[in-house]
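To illustrate the input format used throughout this study, we show a single complete record. The first block contains the structure-token representation of the backbone; no residue identities are included at this stage. The design step must infer an amino acid for every position from geometry alone.
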């Protein structure tokens, strides 16, 4: 049962700070207890001195000792984790919170300003340190090295998305003139010159120029994508010293390729090792186990297996059915590898 009482011993001797981050300024809403007065301060983003002075002034106003602990929180956003590392460097115990997990009233439309959001964050922070830990989701903060190691995998994912986008654009331009799909390889300019539209006439020069322009961009993306895939396969190759041990262990399992192994290893580091070690978690993430049906879904009894970014692709890995080669023991082995 969730404890909803505020314990005095946990909220009376510390300063609580809710940070509303923006590109121009940070709004700090500070207090010591749910029923205590609030003090607000605005600082420039990343101004270490202004942050320290604002918290010191709040301690003096509330009668706290200079060495009293400071506990803060802010929502995860486009700034990433550097605000968390900055606050931690100042000796602050900080929480990064998933904004989508914060409770909101659904009865009517509500006002939304930085001042109101800061007040709400502060109340939730006080409840968190008062004993309630299930009311929001605290984001796992990776180390700088782990966060930097994920950029290679995310860059490859971006390249694959760009490749699909430009390929679809070329096929769409050709479909406007009744042309069936062409192979988008190095011989596309030769084929394009001989293509006829629905009426048997050559394609207009404007369409040909736009298709070739898009194709040249696609060729450069394809070159970068192939190079990134080769580097990724080398990192998980069992004959070399592993640069990514978890991804290498996953790649040894049947049905998990280098791309999926790298994504799963990144997911494990993103959410923390504790929850990733569950076999059920791993099976759901890779699409090897069914999940409860979405309310209102056309297909009762199942839903798309796995996360959209982590779902395995390949033979036997359908969207609405589990992969036959990854159920049971293999899912447990994948969890052990993570």
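Output of the design step:
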């Amino acid at each position: 049962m969730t404890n909803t009482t505020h314990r005095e011993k946990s909220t009376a001797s510390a300063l609580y700070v809710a940070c509303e981050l923006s590109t121009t300024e940070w709004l700090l809403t500070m207090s010591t207890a749910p029923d205590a007065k609030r003090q607000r301060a605005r600082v420039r983003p990343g101004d270490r001195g202004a942050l320290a002075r604002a918290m010191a002034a709040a301690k003096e106003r509330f009668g706290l000792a200079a060495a009293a602990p400071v506990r803060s929180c802010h929502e995860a956003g486009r700034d990433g984790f550097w605000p968390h590392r900055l606050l931690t460097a100042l000796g602050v115990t900080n929480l990064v919170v998933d904004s989508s997990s914060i409770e909101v009233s659904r009865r009517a439309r509500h006002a939304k300003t930085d001042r109101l959001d800061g007040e709400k964050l502060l109340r939730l922070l006080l409840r968190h340190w008062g004993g309630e830990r299930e009311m929001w989701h605290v984001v796992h903060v990776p180390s700088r090295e782990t966060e930097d190691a994920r950029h290679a995998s995310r860059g490859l994912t971006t390249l694959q998305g760009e490749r699909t986008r430009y390929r679809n654009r070329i096929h769409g331009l050709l479909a406007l003139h009744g042309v069936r799909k062409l192979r988008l390889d190095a011989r596309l300019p030769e084929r394009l010159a001989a293509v006829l539209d629905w009426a048997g006439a050559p394609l207009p020069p404007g369409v040909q120029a736009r298709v070739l322009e898009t194709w040249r961009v696609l060729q450069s993306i394809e070159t970068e994508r192939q190079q990134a895939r080769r580097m990724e396969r080398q990192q998980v190759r069992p004959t070399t010293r592993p640069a990514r041990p978890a991804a290498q262990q996953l790649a040894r399992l049947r049905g998990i390729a280098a791309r999926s192994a790298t994504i799963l290893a990144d997911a494990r580091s993103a959410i923390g090792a504790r929850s990733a070690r569950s076999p059920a978690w791993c099976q759901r993430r890779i699409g090897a186990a069914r999940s409860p049906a979405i309310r209102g879904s056309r297909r009762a009894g199942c839903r798309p297996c796995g996360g959209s970014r982590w779902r395995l692709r390949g033979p036997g890995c359908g969207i609405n059915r589990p992969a036959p080669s990854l159920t049971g023991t293999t899912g447990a082995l994948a969890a052990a590898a993570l």
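Structural context for interpreting the output: Strands lie at 15-20, 26-31, 39-43, 70-75, 93-97. The first strand starts at residue 15 and ends at 20.
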